[in-house]
Amino acid sequence: MSEELPANMKVCLIPVTAQPPTFGMIMSVMAIEQKYDQIIICVEDNPILIPTEMVKKMLSIVFRYPKYVIISDPINFEELVEFPRELPKFNYVATMNDRVHANLSAKGYGCYLIPRAIGYDEYFHRNAFKISQVLELLRSRTTAIPLKKYKKTDPSSEEGE
Predict the structure, then answer these.
(1) More confident call, 19 vs 125
(2) How many domains does the chain have?
(3) What's the CA gap between 148 and 103, in Å, rounded?
(4) Residue 149 lies in a domain
(5) 159 found inside a domain
(6) Does the residue 69 lie in any domain?
(7) What's the Cα-to-Cα distance from 1 to each of 40, 50, 79, 87, rounded to whole Å?
(8) Are 93 and 112 contacting, i.e. CB atoms less than 8 angstroms apart?
């Protein structure tokens, strides 16, 4: 955390581990955006389902105002000991991840835990995305069989035999 920022400027770093980003995560960030002059969203460079560059592009479409800065870094904030110098200057840290909050708070960094939106279930959205990707893969590898080739049978006549 840096002292080089103007005293009245509030810059918040938000580490994001959600890949893909969920609707609830986006709503949570938007819920606190009025508190800060600039928000730096740091995407962990650890592709789970989609490449990190695509996650950054998705977030830059949603957070398109100049107030937001989207970056990626291979830092694992759950095990972070000291902030690296290559991060942009900030004076606040906020997160939606309980483990990141616990680690940063234990290390003495003031970290704000962003409350989740009511009715928000991160795992539901992530699992729905995985299932949709699997279904898309199955559809792309499945060929359609024309039903006109097969003779229709009368189910009632088969039961009597």
Answers:
(1) 19
(2) 1
(3) 63
(4) no
(5) no
(6) yes
(7) 13, 30, 17, 9
(8) yes
